[in-house]
Backbone:
């Protein structure tokens, strides 16, 4: 076969080493040699001897479902082979977490990750458990974390002299060393008089980075697979 479709840009090449790599802007590849974890329904193709197990049963499953948000559970992928993951053609990125690191990420942006990573569910201080992007996963340990984002994200440095204010529906995640709180920028009266409507922002203070997606629209609920 000939044509642009069958060019080296699109044809999958042999894996160089086990683990997670960027296949292209919209897809991550994971060469499995043991076990890894992924958002359920995110696997678009695989080859080799792989088994997929839903991770949505029992109390532990409740915790794992919260990681991916919108009630989507995780799945474990075990065996040997290649698997490709994507979500609604969103852009894909890899974060490498090292010992001592801590990365807080919105569950809607989690695609897949190494089984060597630990995670817990946390809420933004002062925000309770409601609101866009205020119920997050905190990843620690050592390994790679695959993320998706609508568009190309902004990575904004935060310093003690320059706190960053982010729309709660636009925040993807942030690094360790940052403190969070909520900031009300306008009164209801101001909004009714034609203000911007940006009533509440997430404030990040300290030393680190915050990742923001170029959209403040709340994403629709993904269909169940």
Residues:
């Amino acid at each position: 076969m000939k044509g642009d479709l069958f060019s080296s840009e699109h044809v999958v090449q042999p894996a160089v080493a086990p683990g997670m790599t960027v296949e292209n802007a919209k897809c991550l590849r994971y060469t499995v040699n043991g076990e890894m974890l992924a958002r359920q329904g995110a696997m678009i193709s695989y080859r080799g001897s792989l088994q997929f197990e839903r991770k949505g049963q029992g109390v532990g499953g409740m915790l794992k479902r919260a990681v991916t948000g919108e009630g989507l559970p995780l799945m474990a992928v075990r065996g040997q082979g290649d698997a490709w993951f994507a979500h609604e053609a969103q852009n894909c990125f890899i974060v490498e977490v090292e010992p001592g690191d801590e990365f807080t990420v919105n569950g809607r942006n989690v695609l897949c990750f190494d089984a060597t990573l630990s995670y817990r569910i946390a809420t933004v201080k002062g925000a309770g458990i409601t609101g866009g992007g205020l119920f997050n996963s905190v990843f620690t340990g050592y390994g790679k974390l695959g993320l998706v984002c609508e568009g190309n994200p902004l990575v904004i440095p935060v310093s003690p002299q320059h706190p960053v204010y982010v729309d709660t529906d636009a925040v993807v995640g942030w690094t360790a060393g940052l403190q969070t709180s909520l900031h009300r920028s306008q009164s209801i009266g101001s909004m009714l008089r034609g203000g911007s409507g940006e009533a509440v922002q997430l404030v990040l203070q300290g030393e680190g980075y915050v990742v923001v997606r170029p959209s403040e629209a709340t994403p629709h609920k993904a269909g169940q697979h």
